[in-house]
Amino acid sequence: MLERFARYHAASPREVAGVELSFTIKVGRAEIRGNVDRIEVDSDGNFYVIDFKTGKNTITKDKAKENLQLACYQLAVALDGFEKKLSGSKSTGAELVYLASDSVKVTTRQQFVIDEVAVKAKIEEIAVGMGAATFQARINKMCEKCVVKAACPIQNEGRAVIE
User: Fold this and answer.
1) Angstrom distance (rounded) from CA 13 to CA 35
2) How far is 38 from 61, CA to CA, in rounded Å?
3) Cα-based distances in Å from 53 to 12, 89, 149
4) What is the pTM of this model?
5) What is the DSSP letter of 82?
6) What CATH class is the domain 2-132?
7) Where do the PD-(D/E)XK endonuclease-like domain residues begin and end (predicted)?
8) Segments making up each domain of the chain, as ranges
9) How far apart are CA 155 and CA 26, in angstroms?
10) Tally: H helices and E strands in the chain
């Protein structure tokens, strides 16, 4: 994994602007907090968000283009939501970099520059749904990592909440 990281780093045409950067952004009634693995800056001063992945499972190129996590990272750049202030606020894209893949070449999935209005609308739609009087819980692949299982009515750990 370390060798893959070194290969990626050496091949990147951009400079490192920051690593493990915390951000907070407010979009409508939603407040989003997170950490970005790395932000790189190109020769024109535009930022590019990098999310390193250590699992072997990759997503398709099409799914990466629509990935809401990457879009939120780009929105954090656009809204200047980082604790460490960046000298500019233009994101030119984001990328998932898979370090644990078995391929010889480092596997990446790119997301081009986002439509800020569309991303904000999606976040607001999700926030309204989650903040409603009823919120429909659905089993999905993220359930394994969910931090609110104890309050979820469809998980065994959360059954006591509704009984």
Assistant:
1) 23
2) 20
3) 16, 25, 24
4) 0.82
5) B
6) alpha beta
7) 1-153
8) 2-132, 134-163
9) 30
10) 5, 5
